[in-house]
Amino acid sequence: MVAPLTFWLLFAAAMLISSIGFYKYVYFISLGYGFSIAGLGVIMLFMFRSGLSWGTVAACALFFIYGIRLGGYLLIREIKSASYRNKMKTEIKDGKTMPFFVKCAIWVTCGALYVTQVIPVYYRLLNGKATDGFCIAGLIIMAFGVTFETVADIQKNSQKKKNPNRFCDKGLYKFVRCPNYLGEMIFWTGVLVSGVNILTGVGQWIIALIGYIGIIFVMFSGARRLEIRQNKNYGKDPEYQKYVKSVPIMVPFIPLYSVEKYKFLVA
Questions:
Q1: What domain count does the chain have?
Q2: How far apart are CA 13 and CA 40, in angstroms?
Q3: Contact criterion met (CB below 8 Å) for 167 and 230
Q4: Considering the domain boundaries, does residue 258 fall inside one?
Q5: Are 197 and 132 in contact (CB under 8 A)?
Q6: Does this model's pTM top 0.85?
Q7: Is position 87 within any domain?
Q8: Distance between CA 227 and CA 255 in Å, rounded?
Q9: Is residue 156 part of a domain?
């Protein structure tokens, strides 16, 4: 199966935007991620402007909203929060000693992942499918996911302002320890749902599932990294110990309380 030119244009755009990671390699998966998704949403609107439906316009708009919100949040946090920058210096390598070919491999992998994540909407546009029930259901889930993640970030900021040295356990954090990651997973589940009835052939399904499974893996990896950091910071706090033993780490009501031992989740 030969990928259409529009696919390679999207891939090139994701590569261009995520190349910010060469300035600081963590940007490949933070700022580069958010702004790539936003950019892909805009580019798809332009490339398929003659065959849009209200559902595909809404999906691309949600990509833009999702990406700008995430990228903007991460950028503002890094610029304004000196304590966050200092903390990250000790916990995340700056990549200065990383071989150039390794950075290139990360760059290409990230660009490919970001494109495959938006593939269900891309194929709806490419296959000329109008808005239908699956598209609408997907849009509802996507909107809920980005709202859920936004609320989680707002609640975390509010709690950290009141007590910077305490873990977050209020609001959505009462039900799950990583509600922002859960919101991301909900969003991308909506994207996959929106394309269930328009993905044709094994090839399209494989590409779509690579994107979906890939971002789920990234979210669980992020949860493991956060758990390790929080155990280091709050491990001696009895309240924290009670919290982590009673509140699931990623999905409410699913009794998965720790992912630290799963070393295949690269931290």
A1: 1
A2: 7
A3: yes
A4: no
A5: yes
A6: yes
A7: yes
A8: 16
A9: yes
Condensed to tens digits (0 to 9), the pLDDT of residues 126-165 reads 988 889 999 999 999 999 999 999 999 999 999 988 998 8
pLDDT of residue 217: 96
- Asked whether the CA dihedral 26, 236, 181, 113 is positive or negative, the reply is positive
Dihedral angle, C-alpha 253, 259, 261, 263, nearest 10 °? 140
Give the Cα separation of 61 and 69 in Å (integer).
12
Show the domain range for 138.
5-246
Whether 254 is in a domain gets the answer: no
Q: Please give the average per-residue pLDDT across 80-106, as a whole number.
A: 69
> Minimal CA–CA distance to 124: which of 53, 24, 21, 18?
53
Tokens encoding 173: 């954090």
